């Protein structure tokens, strides 16, 4: 009872503190909100929406069940999750945060995985997508495309390592897990057909449900991105970031890292995009040190993404604690892999070239193909977002009218 009251007081105090901070720094809050909105509007929404819609349709048509039967002999021995986890892993790696959590939650709601299996699965199916690692971080912030190779290798190796560790999470193997299933195309096709018949929704209804569910999830994600962008900005202006950064300085100095990385590292714990950008600007650190810290925050994925995942998992009985624990492990292993792979991978790639943190000036010029393509993508992303939001409103209005008439 006392802990419950203490939690209530803490949450109420945090909300009041947030409100007063917004009043004290209105201009900074608006600026941070616009930054988060711009990121969601141009990049997050158009990049995640197709994956979300397609995954919903694949589940409804039984394709995920089909893939699950074929991948069962691979996923069960390695990660102690059903074969459908292979689909969640692939889609999570391709589309990025928090697609893995959404797919895991849907599989749990469909009854295709148990609670423990879902908690194992969600711990290693949420990762950053290659486009973000190579495009935004490596090229956009560090101006070094080759750095993306080492960051991606460390990130995905760390993710798979988390999956192998989390296989020991939970109770001993159940009879269901001990059953050895043979790969059978006939059985897989039979389950695909049975799943589609059981769903029993017309294609139009299934597509509408996929759009509605995907847009609702992305609206929630957009809210969290904007919220944590504002929180990060306010913490900086309230000098709270600098206060906690002093503690991180001690840890960094123990490992012989520059103390200047402390503030970017703390910012990255909240929002990985801002943290990665700030790390790239620290001239006192070597490129290897910058890469190690960047890998750590990419693996941890930031409180912003974790809040998104927590909101998705709250719709099911999946516990959030294993996911949070897995993010700490992922961050540490990603940093470790960056360290041990730096010599044999990155330095070997650059052994015949002069290592540099910069790209040719022509590449960064406003008239270069890079900037032209990025500008076109940003403009197209905004158009896609607005168009899909309009479609969502139309579908929602029609369903409200149908419900009212019926």
From TrEMBL:
<keyword id="KW-1133">Transmembrane helix</keyword>
<dbReference type="InterPro" id="IPR011642">
    <property type="entry name" value="Gate_dom"/>
</dbReference>
<feature type="transmembrane region" description="Helical">
    <location>
        <begin position="78"/>
        <end position="97"/>
    </location>
</feature>
<protein>
    <submittedName>
        <fullName>Sporulation integral membrane protein YlbJ</fullName>
    </submittedName>
</protein>
<feature type="transmembrane region" description="Helical">
    <location>
        <begin position="147"/>
        <end position="170"/>
    </location>
</feature>
<feature type="transmembrane region" description="Helical">
    <location>
        <begin position="206"/>
        <end position="228"/>
    </location>
</feature>
<feature type="signal peptide">
    <location>
        <begin position="1"/>
        <end position="26"/>
    </location>
</feature>
<dbReference type="InterPro" id="IPR014226">
    <property type="entry name" value="Spore_IM_YlbJ"/>
</dbReference>
<feature type="transmembrane region" description="Helical">
    <location>
        <begin position="234"/>
        <end position="254"/>
    </location>
</feature>
<feature type="domain" description="Nucleoside transporter/FeoB GTPase Gate">
    <location>
        <begin position="44"/>
        <end position="137"/>
    </location>
</feature>
<keyword id="KW-0812">Transmembrane</keyword>
<feature type="transmembrane region" description="Helical">
    <location>
        <begin position="374"/>
        <end position="397"/>
    </location>
</feature>
<feature type="transmembrane region" description="Helical">
    <location>
        <begin position="291"/>
        <end position="312"/>
    </location>
</feature>
<keyword id="KW-0472">Membrane</keyword>
<keyword id="KW-0732">Signal</keyword>
<feature type="transmembrane region" description="Helical">
    <location>
        <begin position="47"/>
        <end position="71"/>
    </location>
</feature>
<feature type="transmembrane region" description="Helical">
    <location>
        <begin position="324"/>
        <end position="345"/>
    </location>
</feature>
<feature type="domain" description="Nucleoside transporter/FeoB GTPase Gate">
    <location>
        <begin position="218"/>
        <end position="314"/>
    </location>
</feature>
<dbReference type="Pfam" id="PF07670">
    <property type="entry name" value="Gate"/>
</dbReference>
